[in-house]
Amino acid sequence: MSWKTRLLKSIPPTKEGLESLKIQSNRTRTTSKTSFKKETKNELENWKFKLTANQINNQIIQQPNFIYPPRLSHQLDSILFEKKPQFVIDPSSQKSNFTDFVNQIPNVQDFDFTKIPPYKVASTDSKLLEYTKSSQSKYYSSTSSIVNILSQLDILITNRKSMSKQSFIPTIQESLNFRISRYSISGSLNTLKYQDGVYAIDKAPDDDQRYNVLQDLGHVIELLLTMPTSTFRKTFVKNDVTYDKDMISNQRESFNYRKIGDFLLRSQLDAYHPDIGIFDLKSRASLPIRMDVENYKESIHYDIYQHSGLVESFEREYHGLLTNSFLKFNLQARIGDMHGMFLGYHNTEKFFGFQYIPLSEMDNALYTNTITAETTFSLSIGLLQHILDLAVDALPKQDLQLFIEPVYNNYTNVYVTSLDNESLEPLQFFVKVKSKVNDRIMDKPMINGKDDVWELYYDIERKRFDRDRYTRYLKSYKDL
Q: Do the Cβ atoms of 71 and 226 come closer than 8 Å?
């Protein structure tokens, strides 16, 4: 099946159809509607717990010998100050806007992955454990492991179900679904590993052993974008005439560590510019490749040649970011104290273009403003901390598995099982939340300034473990 057939099957028919490819977008951001309800006298008096963001301490740990990440190479710095995506090859002149090196992406089979330091999950990172103890934290994790949990709690607290469509061209508004992707709301599965009085939170091992070229390509692209051409080829590209198997990269890994509540969180840092600070690097494969990664070579001929349009446009890629990735990217940038993210749009063989998206733009798209985003983050951390405290108190000093089922409206179920002793009774917590802002109950909470008071009311009720429900939701999560 060609990429066009697969893609068109995913688009509901509209009157305009593909004629809309010529329509240009007028991107103006609008504010989503917020639901208010008058508080009834006794509506919140039976809720057991209340949390505000100012109860959660939040700071970046100062490192005495901080290592800055590398800067962008290949004349890419200019992208950081542009408002929209920039083509690698100008559609009108067919001339390259950057050095020729970024026109093509090396084949992953020709890349020497043995020279990349292996990724350390939180439970194997001795330095992270040291920082956890010295900061008197109880839990520690990496951004890649904890964002899936925080995403579920974010959706629980905000009651977010869909994204605003007002900044897109009419045909995209009418043709595409703006609900949050099922991959974002499918639940989360993690392990808690006990070690010397503290708990490491790792993402649970993936049962899916199928090869994903995009994961390997992400490592390749990060290095390609930040290294001089000659150094990159000599160090990593095995089929290049200058390749030296003994050549070692001089790029050192860079990290930030955030202490928030009882958590110590590690963020790996990708790139830096003196005028904006630290930012993330992301590689973004085109839509049909993401839809069928296993058969990605069949979609190589899909092109991105216009800013706006239902297909083959940067606007369509932005829609995918908004509904599927922004929440994850937003949390990663916020935890790591990053200014934003630099995106490279590609088809695994070549780049179509690049775009810089500040954290503030993601905040506006997801939460309407930054103060709501920051407050939601703190409340999510506080709620997670309470859930974990109850879990480790009930099943102390052992390794645990934590599964959060998909959020429904303002409630979810959290399941905790022992990995050390299967005979111990598993735990199930029913979690529900309700928000009050300036004495008004809000279904979709939002604040506009520091004088606004957002109070999160919540209950965490221990239930009898429902094995059938747990098994059903866990299977659905693993089948995605």
A: yes
Closest CA to 465 of 396, 384, 401, 370: 401
pTM of the complete model beyond 0.85: yes
Collapse the DSSP code of 440 into the 3-class scheme (helix H, G, I; strand E, B; otherwise coil) and give the result: strand
Report the alpha-carbon distance of residue 474 to residue 162 in Å, rounded: 24
* Segment 121-131, tens digit of pLDDT: 999 999 999 99
Cβ density class 283-318: b for 16+ within 10 Å, e for less: bbbbbbbbbebeebeebeebebebbbbbbbbbbbbb
The shares of helix, strand and coil residues in the chain, as percent rounded to the nearest 5, are 35, 25, 40
Q: Are 338 and 360 in contact (CB under 8 A)?
A: no
Kind and range of the H or E run holding 202: strand 198-203
What is the rounded distance in angstroms from the CA atom of residue 391 to the CA atom of residue 394? 5
Give tens-digit pLDDT for 30-77: 334 444 454 454 678 889 999 999 999 999 999 988 999 999 999 999
pLDDT in tens, 392-416: 999 999 999 999 999 988 899 999 9
